[in-house]
């Protein structure tokens, strides 16, 4: 396979309150990767339309997610930060990929099954097509690395399958257009660290999610110290003391989750956290955990509140980022049209 220059792409949906799972599984990684790679971070507003939404709320949460990116330390000058709908090539490439991807591939996607639930027949076509749009988001920039939480692994595999099939199906045209043996890289998921799947505080078998109806299931980046302390105090646990050995966390999803959060926030391993708290009761551990969460989130929350009062700044970041993203996407889309035979 041809060598592609390394580039990072990832997105977050403006569907509601950003939470600790989004931070540890995704945004914290985004911040780290900007040290080593050119990065594109996108507020994926088109994805947020796949479930019923309020127009006013979508505009507000789009600015809120952007503010969170900035507050967590993403530098919009060194990297590209923008909202997806401003660069129409994402939607355009989705159609091309819709004609490459197979129905059988989409049928296997577990996120669709979970989000559609029993109302499958009534789910939007957009919700079904979500992973194809996600493949287009990544591949329109020929991104090679995609930092995401565990839950997005299957969608990344689909993006790789689409890229591979496009490269195979159009191999002669790709070569004839001067792009050698492959037009798209096969993007790699970057799923790393002790908190790639932060679980709900109410149910250790369910992922922490923006769309969970219970606010007690998650810690929002905008929660104040009292709310954080209360949510952690009420978080579900079992009645055994904390074990000394990481293996003993198996079968104890709530304990495993809280230990994982502590480890991720303090840049330690779960084993190191257990060494410190082994044999102790949850009450003491929860107090220490609340302190750590509050300490880490307080500066992010403060900066998000400051940016909420300065929407003009946030809007200028999105507009500037979109212009730079478009400059990368447009020539790629033109080449794709040439390859598939669309006259332009
Ligand atoms: P929704 O419920 O609307 O799908 P979400 O919380 O899943 O919201 P997304 O915008 O879909 O958030 O995902 C943004 C990023 O956060 C993705 O990379 C995703 O993998 C990651 N992420 C989401 N939830 C978690 C979690 N609980 N733990 C770790 N990473 C997560
Ligand atoms: Mg999600």
Describe the structure.
- The protein has a 3-stranded parallel β-sheet with strand order 1-2-3. Strands 4-5 form a two-stranded parallel sheet.
- The mean pLDDT is 96.
- The chain has 344 residues and is mostly helical.
- The chain starts with 7 loop residues before the first strand and ends with a helix.
- The protein is built from 13 helices and 5 strands.
- The protein is globular, with a radius of gyration of 21 Å.
- The protein is 52% helix and 6% strand.
- Helix 3 packs across helix 6 (125-139) and helix 10 packs across helix 12.
- Bound molecules: adenosine-5'-triphosphate and magnesium ion.
Biggest sheet layout = 3 strands, parallel
Kindly name the structural category. Answer: mainly alpha
**Contiguous uncertain segments of 5+ residues:** none
Bound molecules: adenosine-5'-triphosphate, magnesium ion
- Estimated share of beta-strand residues: 5-15%
Strand order of the largest sheet: 1-2-3
In total, the number of strands is 5
Tertiary shape = globular
Helix content: 40-55%
Query: N- to C-terminal separation?
Result: 29 Å
Q: Can you count the helices?
A: 13
Rg computed from alpha carbons, rounded to a whole number of angstroms: 21 Å
Order of helices and strands: EHEHEHHHHEHHEHHHHH
Mean pLDDT: 96
